[in-house]
Amino acid sequence: MYEQVTLDYATNALEPYIDQTTIETHHGKHHATYTKNFNDMVEKAGLVGKTVEEILANLPVVPDATIRQGLRNQGGGYYNHNLYFEMFSPNPTKAPTGKLADAINAQFGSLEACIEEISKLAAAQFGSGWAWLSTDKDGKLYVSNSLNQDNPISEGTGHTPLIALDVWEHAYYLKYKNLRPDYIKAFWEVLDWKKVEERYEKLL
User: Fold this and answer.
1) Which among 1, 7, 9 is positioned nearest to 28, based on CA atoms?
2) In this structure, how many other beta carbons lie within 10 angstroms of the beta carbon of residue 48?
3) Are 131 and 167 in contact (CB under 8 A)?
4) Do 90 and 14 contact (CB within 8 A), yes or no?
């Protein structure tokens, strides 16, 4: 059974950047629904026992087009939201150190430049979707954006996400209305770079 990530902070702990009502609705309703639907879809597809990463990386082998699309949508929603919610902290580390800091500086020139590039992709994403910082197996970093609940795994890039920036309207509309750039700026205020760094080092 695939389990929804448990918040290690209170639903009001990310105020004023991400409001309590949004967390309660986004995590407690939207993400919970993706988790339930993905579990149901995996059982229907006969893929119980596979990791979500294995399923998303091998979607083309699923013969039934309806089931394949369902796994892509629900599995992506499950995976993407788990990463999104687990990277926040009310007392975040504001910058990475070690190998991740070195990789960011080598590829983008600075942390600020990396954040700016991801933020631009997030702001430019037409309609619902995500922006990503991902890594390949050699530790090289990539920024990208995706439609709907797609991600670098389901898109077949071979890259593993480190940061998931949700730009579906349900992630920000209750507080920020149509001001997506304001939400994107707030996102970085509660992103914990220590958690991102730990994830990066585990993947190397």
Assistant:
1) 7
2) 11
3) yes
4) yes
How many whole angstroms from its chain centre is CA 18? 16
Q: Are residues 132 and 74 in the same domain?
A: no
The number of residues making up the chain comes to 204
Write the DSSP assignment of 105-149 as a string of letters: HHHHSSHHHHHHHHHHHHHH--SSEEEEEEE-TT--EEEEEEETT
Per-residue pLDDT 10s for the chain (204 aa) are: 999 999 999 999 999 999 999 999 999 999 999 999 999 999 999 999 999 999 999 999 999 999 999 999 999 999 999 999 999 999 999 999 999 999 999 999 999 999 999 999 999 999 999 999 999 999 999 999 999 999 999 999 999 999 999 999 999 999 999 999 999 999 999 999 999 999 999 999
**Which tokens in the block code for residue 65?**
């087009």
Q: Check residue 30 and report its DSSP letter.
A: I
Locus of tokens 């991102």: 196
Which CATH number belongs to the domain containing residue 172 in this structure?
3.55.40.20
Q: Which of 66, 86, 106 is the last residue of a domain?
A: 86
3-state secondary structure of 164: strand
Span 9-27, pLDDT tens digits: 999 999 999 999 999 999 9
* Residue 78 in tokens: 């499950």
Residue 14 lies in a domain: no
Could you tell me the pTM of the whole model?
0.98
